Amino acid sequence: MNQTLLKIIASREDISDYLFHFTKGSNAFDTLLKIAKDSQLKDIKNNGVICFTEAPITLLKGMFDIFNNYQEPMYAPYGIAIKKEHLFLLGARPVIYGTIEEKNVFPESLRWRFEEYIPNIKDFTWLREWRLKSNLLDLTKENCFIITKTKEEYESVAFSDDCIDDIDFDGCVDDGQFVGTATGYFERGFKGISIEDIVEFNKLSKSEVDKMIDKQDFNDTVGRNLGGFIW
Predict the structure, then answer these.
(1) Residue 228: which pLDDT band, with cuts at 50, 70 and 90?
(2) At residue 223, does pLDDT exceed 60?
(3) pLDDT at 229 over 50
(4) What distances in angstroms separate CA 36 from CA 52, 81, 131, 160, one per listed residue?
(5) Cα(143)–Cα(85) distance, integer angstroms
(6) Entry pTM
(7) Which range, of 3-12, 19-28, 149-158, averages the lowest pLDDT?
(8) N vs C: which end of the chain shows fewer Cβ within 10 Å?
(9) What is the spatial order of strands in the sheet that 50-53 belongs to?
(10) Could you read off the pLDDT of 96-142 as tens digits, one per residue?
(11) Which band of pLDDT confidence, cut at 50, 70 and 90, is reported for residue 230?
């Protein structure tokens, strides 16, 4: 391993170890819930690729603040982070930006990586986009983590109803019926972090984000009131 390269990467907040896939539109959170439930990223528009950004999560709050002013934002603070090295081994590559004339120079086998660039008119270089030539990417709790806008949203995704571990009942018998409440305990389905966390902890660095995620345990559980009932 090139030690100089490692030191440079560690010293640069603008270089990420992860690639991020963010959801979009007014239903962005619901889309993330579905991705987590299915444990899959899908090319729902049949473009033949799944897209990611290399821009570090610690530097993206300003972008989300801008998109928050739109009813159907291009990107929302809900997404999946996957190690860049893992995606590279699967075939993901950086986008090649250039003019349409330059696109014709590339063989057909490489054109899926091409994105037109016209200065001040059509410029998506700020995305630092990567693409994976695939219609489907399976996710596991070991190869990714989730991003949400708030800590409460993170818990609802990471400790979803699909991950229920146990239920405690608290109540009494009244006229032959059991009346009370139930508390469900949910195991962590995904590690992750919220934009709220990054801001609250004084704009976490990428190494601090890594430490915060690494210390999360898949054996962690949270209790959630399931409401009252009569049985």
Answers:
(1) very low
(2) yes
(3) no
(4) 17, 12, 20, 9
(5) 11
(6) 0.80
(7) 3-12
(8) N
(9) 93-94, 129-132, 50-53, 18-22, 79-83, 144-148, 192-194
(10) 999 999 998 999 999 999 999 999 999 999 999 999 999 999 998 88
(11) very low
Torsion of CA 42, 198, 140, 6, to 10 degrees: 100
pLDDT score recorded for residue 59: 85
Q: How far is the C-alpha of 94 from the C-alpha of 79, rounded, in Å?
A: 19
Question: Beta strands 221-230 and 164-174: pairing type?
Answer: unpaired
Query: What is the average pLDDT score of the chain?
Result: 84
> Residues 186, 161: contact at Cβ < 8 Å?
yes
Q: Averaged over 210-226, what is the pLDDT? A: 76
Q: What is the 3-state secondary structure (H, E, C) of the chain?
A: CCHHHHHHHHHCCCCCCEEEEECCCCCHHHHHHHHHHHCEEECCCCCCCEEEECCCHHHCHHHHHHHCCCCCCCCCCCEEEEEHHHHHHHCCEECEEECHHHHCCCCHHHHHHEEECECCCECCHHHCEEEECCCEEECCCCCEEEEECCHHHHHHHHCCHHHEEEEEEEEEEECCEEEEEEEEEEECCCCEEEHHHHHHCCCCCHHHHHHHHHCCCCCCEEEEEEEEEEC
